[in-house]
């Protein structure tokens, strides 16, 4: 029988705990008040400027309710701005502010370090293979998520 310590779900949860702790410690060292979800939102906005909040939620596989609070906090920190959409006056488009862009640029080395420390027990080739396999498994199970990743137009696949 497989033990708890060999179950993929348990190991994934543990690695997530480890990665989150490393991220928090590294942000603390940098003197930055930023969570992994907030970082993901900023990184997605850097790649997809001008999306609405629902699309942003899909781009980082988070639920819309959670995304509302994330956007509120990032706007409060001056890292993103909301404005009325020219196409749909009811929608608000999101953009990184200059401060948000600077923060992403300044954090790039720290984020790379977090990734390296998270996979520190692996060789570079193993880390590359591991990430490829994680991506494959995640993509295969995307439909089962309560907040699936949506990368198409307006966050739809």
From TrEMBL:
Keywords: DNA-binding, Transcription, Transcription regulation. Residues 8-139 form the HTH marR-type domain. GO terms for molecular function: DNA binding; DNA-binding transcription factor activity. It comes from the Bacteria. The keyword Phosphoprotein does not apply. The keyword Transcription regulation applies. This is DNA-binding MarR family transcriptional regulator. It comes from Paracoccus versutus.
């Amino acid at each position: 029988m497989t033990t708890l310590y060999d179950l993929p779900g348990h190991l994934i949860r543990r690695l997530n705990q480890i990665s989150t702790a490393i991220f928090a410690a590294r942000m603390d060292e940098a003197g930055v008040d930023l969570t992994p979800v907030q970082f993901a939102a900023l990184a997605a906005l850097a790649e997809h400027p001008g999306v609405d909040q629902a699309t942003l939620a899909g781009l980082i596989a988070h639920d819309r309710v959670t995304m509302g609070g994330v956007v509120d906090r990032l706007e409060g920190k001056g890292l993103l701005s909301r404005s009325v959409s020219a196409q749909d006056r009811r929608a608000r488009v999101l953009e990184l502010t200059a401060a948000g862009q600077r923060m992403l640029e300044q954090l790039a080395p720290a984020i790379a370090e977090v990734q390296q420390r998270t996979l520190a027990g692996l060789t570079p080739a193993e880390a590359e293979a591991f990430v490829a396999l994680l991506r494959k498994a995640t993509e295969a199970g995307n439909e089962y998520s309560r907040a699936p990743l949506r990368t198409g137009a307006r966050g739809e696949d």
